[in-house]
Write a sequence for this structure.
């Protein structure tokens, strides 16, 4: 292995989510101390650095053209080799595409199926992708800074495709971090195959090898850098102080409802109101208060009916900001906000959500979790129903763990919440299993592992 002194690493960060735990001033210093020069390509105002070996450039969010979308559909849908392993999530998405695009579905089931295994068709589609969509917007950046390696924090973003294509054409080694547990089973294949991937856990590693044909030695397990903060017990305050900070009531149990995005479900405002009514009607075995925490990409206006209601605490994941609105983010978080989340999960008596990543975070604190498996009084199509989430590949492991319970009706929701209020130790073994399977490590050093793998990658590919 050669040293990487005077080598340049291009870091591509298309979204602000989780960036403070992956790319921050401290981590940039660790990277530059290893001998690297850093070019950081990100959203405006996302990060500042006084490091002389770090230069920050603005990521150009180039929308895909209609022809690029068409080639993507041909590659990932029409001529997809269905004899290869596919995740349950993509099978559901393919079925939805069949229903919504009958003409394309007919082509897929006839010519598509016939030529799906043809190397000639595959090569033609790859040629179209690399030739037609070889965006030149980043040519000046590559020519000026001449990066030796590329690290992409979210390779499934369409905004990274032009950079990946240019890096591939320039024969630059590419390392990718998969920042969420559902990415490998819910996203279409990236047009460019990366040299190595960094993932959370062994489940994701198997998905990368089974679904995307990565070799075992090209997929490395880091744990979850975003969750490192939850390992810092010094950030936790006692329950009395926590509730005082929120203007909550110490003598009442905390029912935490963590919303998803508006796209997750149409029924969440109705479900939250349902829980509030149960509290007001004294339907639980203990006096309760509702702590409503909105998703970073969710507006509070969806829950305005609960503003200023008794026994309701509204919590936002930071301060309202328009800085990252292009990525759909309503709220901007800082370190204090992440600390508040740790305390919220630690002190909640029951955590309720549809099927979100916050389920795993709650299990880190051994907090009981109830998932919402019904659509209130709505009757949406399956592709809008909350029920679809429990058939997605990434969530099947959660369901099988027996660490969470799924409420399939209003009656079940009431019963399960009461069950956990009376005995919060129930299903603790299952929650522990979820953490083992999804997080891999509990040492708070996943970010350190990620940085070490980045540095090792640059040394391995130095010439």
């Amino acid at each position: 292995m050669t040293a990487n002194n005077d080598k340049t690493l291009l870091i591509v960060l298309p979204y602000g989510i989780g960036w403070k735990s992956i790319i921050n001033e401290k981590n940039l210093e660790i990277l530059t101390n290893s001998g690297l020069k850093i070019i950081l390509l990100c959203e405006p105002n996302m990060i500042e650095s006084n490091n002389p070996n770090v230069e920050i450039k603005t990521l150009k969010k180039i929308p895909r053209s209609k022809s690029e979308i068409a080639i993507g559909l041909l590659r990932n849908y029409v001529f997809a080799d269905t004899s290869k392993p596919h995740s349950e999530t993509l099978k559901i998405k393919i079925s939805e595409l069949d229903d919504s695009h009958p003409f394309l579905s007919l082509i897929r089931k006839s010519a598509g199926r016939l030529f799906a295994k043809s190397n000639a068709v595959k090569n033609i589609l790859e040629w179209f992708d690399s030739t037609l969509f070889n965006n030149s917007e980043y040519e000046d950046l590559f020519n000026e800074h001449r990066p030796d390696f590329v690290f992409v924090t979210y390779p499934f973003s369409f905004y990274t495709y032009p950079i990946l294509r240019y890096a591939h054409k320039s024969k630059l080694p590419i390392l990718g971090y998969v920042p969420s547990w559902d990415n490998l089973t819910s996203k279409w294949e990236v047009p460019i195959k990366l040299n190595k991937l960094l993932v959370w856990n062994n489940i994701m590693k198997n998905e990368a090898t089974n679904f995307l044909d990565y070799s075992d030695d090209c997929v490395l397990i880091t744990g979850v850098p975003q969750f490192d903060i939850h390992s810092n017990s010094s950030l936790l305050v006692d329950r009395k102080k926590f509730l005082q900070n929120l203007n909550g009531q110490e003598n009442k149990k905390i029912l935490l409802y963590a919303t998803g995005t508006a796209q997750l479900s149409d029924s969440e405002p109705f479900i939250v109101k349902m829980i509030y009514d149960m509290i007001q009607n004294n339907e639980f075995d203990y006096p309760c208060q509702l702590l409503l925490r909105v998703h970073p990409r969710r507006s509070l206006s969806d829950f305005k009916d609960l503003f200023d209601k008794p026994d309701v605490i509204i919590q936002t994941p930071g301060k309202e900001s328009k800085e990252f609105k292009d990525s759909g983010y309503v709220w901007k978080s800082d370190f204090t906000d992440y600390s508040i989340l740790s305390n919220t999960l630690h002190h909640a008596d029951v955590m309720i959500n549809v099927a979100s990543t916050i389920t795993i975070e709650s299990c880190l604190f051994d907090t009981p979790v109830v998932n919402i498996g019904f659509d209130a009084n709505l009757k949406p199509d399956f592709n809008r129903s909350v029920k679809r989430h429990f058939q997605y590949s990434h969530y099947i492991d959660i369901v099988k763990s027996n660490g969470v319970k799924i409420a399939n009706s209003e009656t079940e929701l009431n019963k399960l919440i009461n069950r956990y209020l009376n005995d919060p130790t129930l299903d603790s073994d299952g929650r522990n299993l979820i953490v083992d399977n999804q997080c891999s490590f509990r040492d708070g050093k996943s970010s350190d592992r990620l940085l070490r793998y980045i540095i090792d990658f640059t040394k391995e590919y130095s010439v």
